[in-house]
Amino acid sequence: MRIYCVRIGEKYGQQYEDYMNSKFSDYDxxxxxxxxxxxxPLQWNKMAAMNDDSDEPVVVLDIDNLFINDYKEVIExxxxxxxxxxAPYWWGNGKIKMSGGFYKFYPKExxxxxxxxxxxxxxxxxxxxxxxxxxxxxxxxxMYVNDLIKLRLKLKTLPDAWITRWxxxxxxxxxxxxxxxxxxxxxxxxxxxxxxxxxxxMVHFTNSLNKPHEWSQYQYYA
Length: 222
Known about the structure:
Elements: E1 2-6, H1 14-23, E2 28-32, E3 58-61, E4 65-67, H2 72-75, E5 83-88, E6 98-105, H3 111-119, H4 121-130, H5 141-152, E7 154-157, E8 163-165, H6 175-186, E9 202-204, H7 218-221
Parallel strand pairs: 1-2, 1-3, 5-7, 8-9
Antiparallel strand pairs: 3-6, 4-9, 5-6
């Protein structure tokens, strides 16, 4: 199985690439280190996976994730033709069910998303910021994918209990709310208590300023 990861620029150092390579050495990792076309910023280059010629599912992973416990179950989660699998967004406002840290799909079924994106890169990458649906300078990629999925595919999410957002120590004030909502959504009694709940397989450090290696416990998981 092919796994696509984007590392463009110096924002995320070599340790992130090394981490992903070590975690997924059993798979074919394709690293995107240059924009796929002029004007395509940062995470928007994940669209390259939708132009893959494989007849099998491919996976797209953000590199600001930690993978723990039996994390390969995330990669191997079953998907049928006509489905687009992604990580849930249970910590959000409920308007969007998916988050952008993990995608799994049949690329030929998503080629229409790639084609649509490439027709007007500037408009697509700025729309969600200009309409105050998210904040800049670069954002909105998973919102765009969410909107385009609705045209032809069925959205499917991983189990809520498997995934969580997390924060580096600088943003620790967000954690109590996460704990409460995780318990409410999943029924598990805790999210993090000296360690993550054993159901957790993927920990996503969302927000561009929120990096895994800046968390005091990072080395324990890396």
